[in-house]
Write a structure and sequence with these properties.
The chain contains 3 helices and 4 strands, in the order E-H-E-E-H-H-E. With 100 residues, it is of the alpha+beta class. Helix 1 runs antiparallel to helix 3. The relative contact order is 0.31.
Length: 100
């Protein structure tokens, strides 16, 4: 399993536009084969910060996601949101279980 996690900081004045963009992206991404989880959430304490969390069954599924039309549309739209910083990391997970 692959986990993608990180945060994107945007111009807070563009928050509503960011939410609309993310909702379209998330709806299509969750339909993709190999997508186990896709969460894009706003930081409650910082209106210009969003967090992303994804789980993918394989690198092939993630590669297909990056090649999708809705990802291309998202890349175009995000350029207009006043991105201030973006830190996103990829993790390879070898096992998963309950916390306790």
């Amino acid at each position: 399993m692959l986990v993608i996690a990180g945060e994107i900081a945007i111009d807070p004045a563009r928050r509503a536009a960011a939410i609309a963009t993310v909702l379209r992206m998330a709806e299509e991404t969750r339909k993709e084969a190999g997508c186990a989880q896709y969460v894009f959430s706003g930081d409650l304490g910082d209106p210009g910060r969003f967090r992303i969390f994804e789980e993918w069954e394989s690198q092939a599924a993630l590669d297909a996601h990056f090649a999708s039309p809705h990802m291309a549309a998202f890349q175009t739209a995000i350029a207009e949101l006043g991105v201030r910083s973006m830190t996103i990391r990829r993790y390879e997970v070898s096992s998963v279980g309950p916390l306790r």
